[in-house]
Design a protein that fits this description.
By secondary structure, the chain is an alpha+beta fold. The chain has a domain of 222 residues. It contains twelve helices and 18 strands. Strands 1, 2, 3, 4, 10 and 11 form a six-stranded mixed sheet that branches. Strands 14-13-12-17-18 form a five-stranded mixed sheet, sandwiched between helices. A hairpin with a 5-residue loop joins strand 2 and strand 3. The radius of gyration is 24 Å and the shape is globular. The two termini are 36 Å apart.
Amino acid sequence: MPARSPLSTTTGAARPAAPPAGAGFCAIDFGTSNSAIAVPGPQGAMDLVALEDGAPTMPTAVFYLAEGPDLVQLPRLYGRAALAAYVEGSEGRLMRSMKSVLGSSLMDQHTDIGAGRSVAFADVIASYLRHLRRLAEAQAGQPLTRVVMGRPVYFVDGDAQRDAQAQAALEAAARAVGFEEVRFQYEPIAAALHYEAGVEVEQRVLVADIGGGTSDFSLLRVGPHRRERLDRRDDVLANHGVHIAGTDFDRRLELGAILPLLGFGALGPARGGLPPREVPSKVYFDLATWHLINTVYRPQRLLELRAMKGDYADPAQHRRLMKVLTDHLGHDLAGRAEQAKIAVAGGGEVGLDLGLVEPGLQARLSDHQAAALLEDDLARIVAAARETVAQAGVPPGSVDALYFTGGSTGLKGLTDALAAAFPAARPVHGERLASVAAGLGLYARRCFGA
């Protein structure tokens, strides 16, 4: 198991003078898919900041506009507004999954953002953190100069030097936007802090953090004699994960329940006495992959796909496909697949209205169909959970609790499969979208509250 990076508060430079005791502080969960921030509330608790439309989380996304006035000032949008600009086809560059750049050589490079401009990846991250800080200060009513930031157990697997560089880069970005004191806590420890508050004896807890892009597992040691310790490195017994999560589920369901109506998996006409061949499938995989959807709208691609009409035995399927492409309905279909996943999460069946593609067109998805479509993905996720516990040398029956956090843990089939793998563990459901931020807030109060 690779050595963990220290949870340091400096990057090697002389530590600045400590801020006054009353200086404001906060906690930031800078996530791969979504971010959240907590600040001290009026009753002494840590409150989550309302980031967009009252929601406590915001997509970790920045959209640099490439049209309009004052482009030299790098006009940009954040969160849901950034995603909306991209979906609507605005000229510019969308930046997502910025956290994955930490610890890589890309941090020192610039990327094109349109209109002859470029920006450093480090500045993209700093810009997003600055936006979070401004929103937090508006709610807190005072400047915030101290912060606890969450970090994964490993930014970079198997490379302690790059892992340390990743933390140092994130700290540098935090300092660049005005935070004078920066501390870190492991995200799985933060997620478990609420659970630990009610624990009366030492336990082993498997934290399952399953979001949009990854399923991460950490086996932790928690208990009444550990909860006040600021350094919790030794309480992370093992950490493991796979790059399979919510967006992969949405993709599987769209391919399995919606896109067959547009020809995915369909056969073309029989020709020359040969058996019919399946219609080309690349366009469907692109349509079901969020960041590739806009690529299918390009004029040359449309010409190629329009010319493939003869490859379809059912002309209606090709007609529906071209309707989706010419009207730019790809993101709408992806959103409907996600909504269907949520609708069948607790069981039952849901109808998907596709009238925007063709009047009266409808797809259906049942919980049993969803389970079959996701079976392989769920098996790999469960295997990662088992591997995490095995790495710690702990029998599966010795896991006391299974703590669920992350947006995808709302999928009942997933949590049931994990619970079945650890039958002796008590399933505990935390706040799906903000457990880490809330836990980081508790830790920030312990660090700075006095």
